[in-house]
Structure formats: C-alpha cells, structure tokens
Amino acid sequence: MNKLNVALGLFRMLSENREINARMVAEYFEVSKRTAQRYLEEISFLPSIHRDEERYTYSLTEKVTLSDSLLKSAEMSFLNAVLGYAKTVMGEQNSPMLDKISKKIQYAGNSTHQIISSPVIDYDIVAENHIKLEEYIENKLLISFYYEKSDKNYTVEPYKIILHNGFWYLAAGHNNTLKKFVLEYIQDIKSSGENYSEIPQEFAEILSSAKSMWFEQGENTKVTAHIGDVAASYITRKPFLNNQKILEEHRDGSITIKFDVANEIELLQLLSPWIEYISIIKPDNYRNFFKEIGQKIAKQNS
Questions:
Q1: Membrane-crossing residues (predicted)?
Q2: Residues 228 and 182 in one domain
C-alpha cells in the first residue's frame, strides 16, 4: 500500500480516536496485525506522535489537533458515495476523471453510504452544451443560442445548470425574467463577449428555494390541503413543499397544511406519490383540477 495513503489514514484515525493500537489499524486497513504494527512504527518517530511503551498505543501529542484539517471516516465514505452517484449522472465520458479523484481520496474502509440514483438522460447528449455553459457561467458571459423546443433564438444571462428528475436544465435571465431551458434542446451556443454583473438577488432566492423546475417568476398560489396519515408521516419529516406550514395536526395522524405552488402541474408533480391520501381544501380551481385528474384516472382504469 502507498506509504502516503497509509500515513494519511493513520493521521485520520488519530484525529478521530484518543489513541490507536495495532488491532485497530489492522481492521482499518484490512491487513495483518504484524503489518499494522509496522505502519505504526514508521510514524512513531514523528514529534507529533506519542507512543505508550507499556500499553502499546499511539496518540497525538496534546498540542496537535487535526480534527478540522482531515475528513472523518463517515465524511470520506459519504464523499465516495457522492462520487459513485456522479458517475451515473455524468456518463462514461467523465468516469475516468471521477475514478482518478476517488483514487486520490483513497478511502480505506467499507463504504457506509449509497445514493440511489433515478434514471438520467444519456450525458453524451448534453455533454458539449454542459461543458460550454460551465465556462460561460463561471465567467459571467452573456450567451445566445437557438432553442429547438420553441423554435426561437435567445440571448440570456446563464446562471445555473440544474439536474432534476433525470434531465439537465439551464436557469437563465431573459428580458428581466428568470427562465429555464432544457439542455438537449439548446443548439449553437455562442458567447457575445459581454459580461453580466451578478445573478439578481431575487432570482438567486427563487433558485435556492425551488422544489421543482416550475420556479419561473410569477405569483405563487397558496394552497391548503388535508394530508392523510400515510403521506403526513413523510411530508412532516422535511420541508417538502414551498413555504410549507402545518396548520393543524389531527388525532388520526393526518394534517392540514398550507404551501405555495407555481401552478396546477407543479402541484400534481409534487404530490403525485401520495395523491390518494390528499384532499385539496382551497383554492377551488386547484381542488377541481385534482378532482378531474382523479376522474380521468378512474375512467382509464375502469
């Protein structure tokens, strides 16, 4: 095993434990106790290492702390899980780069994290646009492109590249409005050579609080709904909806909540996993929309 990686692993163990011994090192690196003892002896000469001759343990001297300078094992495991997830998103083209990053991290231990990814559009379809947009966003450059979906040309301020439900989007400013564009429909991207200053604060706040891709500017609608106990147990565990507020908790485990949505489609997308447990109280047009959806589903499955 690479000596640098062994040394980093040992210092990580020392930063997480008051003291370590050969048995702990052997388990961490999955080596024999004899090899582990050799690893410890190789760093014992360092002035920052204290060796207890009677207990055969090793620790950092009191004046040395590494708690804020090295990632802990759980953090390393989570980072490796993120890199694994990134490989499923970024495609084969970027796998070698991500593998190289993983090797540099050299996490010695069993991974305790796994991120389950949803199906993602083939990255090769959007790779060229993705790479160009990264550069233009980083340098705050105005860009122009042809958008196949609406058969129009646009000049925009590119702000963010977003991955949502397996599709890539560009969030950009156009005519003082925040808009989204699907990356696979963007063609012939060109830089105008001009810079924009910063993403407007209003747009930045909209993007940071977005729960779906229906974040474009406009008045949000406040919706009040009754949520059955099965769905309530999930929705109450995290702020799943925009400006989510529980108005009442009922004895049967159900709740009455208020939240914001951009339109009926966003409402359906956010609540569709629990649609059978949800009753829209107001406004009436959203209640009627949900009722019509239910009738269509019943008719198609009758």
A1: none
A2: no
CA proximity to 163, closest of 130, 198, 115 = 130
Domain assignment present for residue 156? The answer is yes
Q: Which two tokens stand for residue 7?
A: 């040394």
DSSP helix/strand/coil, 213: coil
Separation of alpha carbons 278 and 287, rounded Å = 10
Residue 278 CA to residue 285 CA, distance in Å, equals 15
Among candidate residues 231, 240, 221, the one with its CA nearest the CA of residue 282: 221
pTM attached to this predicted model:
0.60
Kindly report, residue by residue over 91-104, the tens digit of the pLDDT.
666 677 667 666 65
- Quickly tell me which residue has 């009922």 as its tokens: 250
Rounded-to-integer distance, Cα 49 and Cα 64, Å = 9
The yes-or-no verdict on residue 5 having pLDDT over 60 is yes
pLDDT in tens, 163-202: 887 888 999 999 999 999 999 999 999 998 899 999 999 9
Does residue 65 sit within a domain? no
Does residue 28 belong to any structural domain of this protein?
yes
DSSP classification of residue 118: P
Residues 6+ apart with CB under 8 A from 31: 1, 25, 39
The total number of structural domains that make up the chain: 4
Please say whether the beta carbons of 87 and 98 come within 8 A.
yes
Same domain, 231 and 153: no
Strands in 221-227's sheet, in edge-to-edge order, are 242-249, 255-261, 221-227, 278-282
Span 27-65, pLDDT tens digits: 988 889 888 888 888 777 776 788 887 788 888 876 555
Determine the structural domain holding residue 184 and report its residue range: 123-209
* Domain presence at residue 261: yes
What CATH number did the domain enclosing 198 receive? 2.30.30
Residue range 267-293, pLDDT digits in tens: 888 888 888 899 999 999 999 998 998
What gap in Å lies between CA 235 and CA 250, rounded to an integer?
14
